[in-house]
Write a structure and sequence with these properties.
EC number: 2.1.1.-
CATH superfamily of one domain: Vaccinia Virus protein VP39
Keywords: Glycoprotein, Membrane, Methyltransferase, Signal-anchor, Transferase, Transmembrane, Transmembrane helix
Number of helices: 19
Organism: Gossypium hirsutum (Upland cotton)
Radius of gyration: 40 Å
CATH architecture of one domain: 3-Layer(aba) Sandwich
InterPro entries: Put_SAM_MeTrfase, SAM-dependent_MTases_sf
Strand order of the largest sheet: 6-5-4-7-8-10-9
Protein name: Methyltransferase
Number of strands: 17
Length: about 625
Amino acid sequence: MAAMACIPRRLSQITLFNTKNLTLYHITLVVILCTTFYLIGIWQHSVGTTFSSSSAAAAFLSSVPCSSLKTTQLDFLPHHLPPDPPSETTRAAQFPPCDPSFSEYTPCEDVQRSLKFDRDMLIYRERHCPEKDELLKCRIPAPYGYKVPFRWPQGREFAWFANVPHKELTVEKKNQNWIKVEGDRFRFPGGGTMFPHGADAYIDDIDKLISLRDGSIRTAIDTGCGVASWGAYLLSRNILAMSFAPRDTHEAQVQFALERGVQAMIGVMASIRLPYPSRAFDMAHCSRCLIPWGQYDGLYLIEVDRVLRPGSYWILSGPPINWQKHWKGWNRTTDDLKSEQSRIETVAKSLCWKKLVQKDDLAIWQKPTNHVHCKANRKVFKRPPICYTQNPDMAWYTKLETCLTPLPRVSNIKETAGEQLAKWPERLNAIPPRISSGSLPGITETVFVENSELWKKRVEYYKTIDHQLAETGRYRNLLDMNAYLGGFAAALVDDPVWVMNIVPVEADQINTLGVVYERGLIGAYQNWCEAMSTYPRTYDFIHGDAIFSLYKDRCEMEDIVLEMDRILRPESSVIIRDDVDVLMKLKNMMDGMQWDGRIVDHEDGPHERTKILFAVKQYWVASPLSQNQ
C-alpha cells in the first residue's frame, strides 16, 4: 500500500517538471524567432535602400552633366541675434555741423532775438530762449585752429587767440590793462577799470578794510565782471567768486573769463531775480559795473540784499565813489554824482545796512546779522516793506520785487539769523544750517554725512574710468548737471578745478542749492529743457546723475544732448549715471555726434541697474575756408 501511494506523487512531480521545461522552451523559441526576423528585416531594408539609392544616383549622374550641378552653402549664422553695429568709419552722424557763423551761439542770449524785447531796464538782455520750432538740430563748431586751453594756473594769465578770436577789448580797454594780444595768444595782466595796477593790489586794498584771509568769506558775487580778473585773483585767497556780465557791446568778456578757467556766466540785473538762492554769498562786489543802484526804488540793491548772507559785505568802487577826484574823467557833473551817491546811501540805510568805511576809491557796507532792529524801524523806513508771501529761494524767471527779504527768526538780538556758518575749510563738511534746522524735508544730518562719503567713493571710481579726470591739471571747468547736496564737487575740492553745481528747477520739489552755498561751493538754477547762460566750449567735463530720467517726458533727450555738446570743449568728457535702458538710448545718440563712448558697470558691481556712461567728444573744428567767409 505504501509503495502504491508513492507512485501518484512521483507522477505529479514529473508532470510538473515537464510542464516547466515546455514553457521555458516556448519562450526561448519565441525570442530566437523574433530576433531572427528582426535582423532579417533590417538587412533587407538596408540592402534594398542602398541598391535603390545607388541606382537612382547612378541614373542621375549619367543623365546630368557636371557643369549644371549647384551646391548649396550651409548657413551657420545665429539668426536669433541682432546684427553687428556698423563700423566707426561707416557710421553716419545723426546731427550735422552747424554753420561756422554759430561758433559762439548762445541760444537764450541771442543778439538778434533780443532786439524784439523792451530795452527798458535792460529787459532785452535777459534770457529769451528760442521756441521749440526754432531749436537748432546741429552741432556748434569750434573755430578753426582751436586748441585745448592753457592749464591752471597758467590759464589765469593766458588764452589762445584762435579760441576767442576777438580783439575789440584789447583796443577799447587798452589803457586799463584788461587784455593784450601777444602773438598767437592773449595775455591778461589782471587789470580792470578801477584797478589798472592789477587785481592783486586792488584785493590787497580791500583786505586792509575787511579780512579776506581768515576763512569767514568764502563765496562772492561779482556783478558786471568784465574778464573776471577780480574773481581770478581771489582764488589765491580761497574765495570762490560767481562772476557775471551781460552779452553786450563788450564782446566776449564772459567768454574770456571762462577761457581763462575762471567761474563766470552770462547774466544781467534787469527785471528778474538772479538764479541763486537767498543767503548765498559772503561778499558782493561792483567795480564800475554801471548798474543804476539808486534807481527803481532801490530794486537792484534789494536783490543784492536777498542773495547776501547775514553779516556779509557789499563793496562798491567807481562812480559815484570818490567823485570829488574823478568827476572830470567820468564826464559827469559834481551835482549828478553827489545826487547818485546820496540815493545809494538812502537805499542802503533802508535795507538796514551799515556803512563800514569809505577810503579812496572803495566803499564797503555790511548787512545786519538779523532783522530784529530792521523790522522795528519799518515805522521810519516805510519802504521797502518786508516780503512775507514770497519764497526767498525761488529764482527762476521770478520777477524782482521792491520788498525786503526777511531773514530767519532769531531768539535774541545777538544771534545770527540762519545760524553762523563755520569758516572755510571746515565749512565744506560741517552740517549746513538748512539741514540742521530741518527746513529740507527728508534730508537729515545722517543723510548729509552718508551722501558726502558716497561721493568720495564714486569720484574715486570715476577716476579709474576717466584718466583725464585723474590727471592733475587736465581739467579746470567742471559742470554737475544735478548737484543735489554738492557731494561731487566736495569730493574734488583738493583738485585744481572748480565745479558749477546746477540744481534743476524740477529737482523733486526739494531746493538744495542753498545747501551747496552753505558748504562754500557755488552753482545756479537751471531748466535743462533750455540752454544754459554760457558760451560754447565752456566746460572740460560734464557730470550728470539721473538727469535724463529726471527730464523724461519733459523735453527731448536730443535737445539736452545737443546742449551738452555745445558747452563741452573738444577732447573733453562726460560721465552720466542713469538706468541702463536710458544709457543705451543715450549712447546711440552720442555715437551720432562724433563722441566716443562706452557703458561701464556701477561702482557696486554689474548687478545694479544703474550704469555709467563715459564719453569723450572728438576734436573737430570749422573748416578754414568757411571760417573766413
